[in-house]
Amino acid sequence: MTRINMKFAIMLIIMLSNNVELFETQLFSQALVNLWFPKEPNIVRVRTLDEVAIGKSVRILDFIGLVTRHGYPAEEHIITTKDGYNLKLHRIPDSPLSINKDNKKPIFLQHGVLGSSDLWVLFGPGKDLAFLLADQGYDVWLGNVRGNTYCRSHVKMSPQNADFWQYSYHEIGTIDLPNMIDYVLDYTGKKFLHYIGHSMGTTLLFVLLSTRPDYNAKIRLGICFAPVALFNELSPLFQQAINNYQNIMKFFNDNEVNELFPLSSTNIASNKILCADNTKTQPFCIAVLFLFAGSDPIQMNTTALPGIFGHYPAGISVLTLYHYIQNILTHDFRHYDYGYFIHNDIVSERYELEKITAPLALIYGAGDVIASRSVKTFNVLELHKRLSNVILFEEVPYKRFNHLDFFTGIDAKSLLFDHVIEIIEKFEAKQLNRSLF
Ligand SMILES: *[C@@H]1O[C@H](CO)[C@@H](O)[C@H](O)[C@H]1NC(C)=O
Ligand SMILES: *[C@@H]1O[C@H](CO)[C@@H](O)[C@H](O)[C@H]1NC(C)=O
After folding, report:
1. CB-CB contact of 369 with 293 (8 Å)
2. How far is the CA of 429 from the centre of ligand 2 (A)?
3. Helix (H) or strand (E) run with residue 90 in it
4. Residues with catalytic function
5. Pocket perturbation via mutation, ligand 1, pick of 61, 301, 312 by most ligand atoms within 8 A of CB
6. Which residues form the signal peptide (predicted)?
7. Tell me: the pLDDT tens digits for 27-85?
8. 304 lines ligand 1 (CB under 6 A)
9. Which of 5, 62, 60, 67 is nearest to 269 (CA)?
10. Ligand 2, atom 3: closest residue by C-alpha
11. Could you give the domains of the chain?
């Protein structure tokens, strides 16, 4: 990646952000809709690199393959929610480097919008948080939520059916998350677990703990990366996209798009080519990422982009996006209101953040345009004020750290993950001390 390419990427961001009317133009022909929002993923998931190489179809490693290729054990557990969605829960139960073999403490990692459990294990041991936690002796569980690439399955409905996609983060937080947490606690015989969520992974925790306060006792410590619940003010780029929300909704309606950016063979194949190093098109890839995550050229490993795009974005319902749009337009954190876009009047219930009593650590990036704390956007600060049991409120010590750096930042280990492990160990030591004295 040359410096000129990166400059070009940043120029493109400015151009793109001034052209959100793009959605109205003929550019979005049916062919592009089919390419970006295909109804069938057509991906073959395999477990060894040998299998990836053979055949013509797009083959990617699944979570088990991504983990076991490094000599770590991995498991897949399938649970069915009370409303019929089949979810795949992943686990790294041990590490070749861990001395602690018994009485491991469960820790639960929850991805955000468009993510999957794969995002926590893309780079390997010594780099990804999931491997580092396993090395430290934790029993690592990784959630996947309805509609993502691992959870496009239901006891009755097919993802081809529009009803399959009738959910927002409300259903994920009130049904999927407690189902997954209870499964882990039952399976391990423990009373509580540590929780680490990124972005929507934090929204889900806030939704669960405020609507079902009995779950506060099941969260030993909740660590929130780039926490998202309140949008007081937006960065100018985001504001512009939001001002266009009616066009965006109309576009999705007209094209019967119910699922946002699914992981599919066409996306994987085209992104691999478009985003590769030394191509003229790579700046476009980077521009799109920076537009939504914040611009941080130093922490972005451009060589890793084609690999990342083999697993991300991994799909979510369009309704989840609409729920966030309601939050933004109303400056409030409420249940999804099915009448809001018709009447412009929000009457749904408020999530009562004051019911959240589990200890929380909030960690944000200064360069993040979503969960930000710039001069104009106080979203994270405001959230901190409304939560009663925040034991730690910190900025990642790198001033451009953006929304995606929590997974893909070149120095994420030294800037964040090592510190996170220290936070958990210190917290545990304190709890142990409390029970001794
Ligand atoms: C960048 O990514 C490539 C491909 O995944 C990897 O080989 C390389 O070590 C990475 N570089 C850094 C600085 O992390
Ligand atoms: C544990 O408690 C003792 C007595 O209150 C105190 O001196 C010590 O610093 C505590 N250790 C930790 C790790 O909190």
Report:
1. yes
2. 9
3. strand 86-92
4. 199, 368, 403
5. 301
6. 1-22
7. 556 667 777 788 888 898 999 988 888 877 889 999 999 999 999 999 999 999 999 99
8. yes
9. 60
10. 433
11. 6-436 (3.40.50.1820)
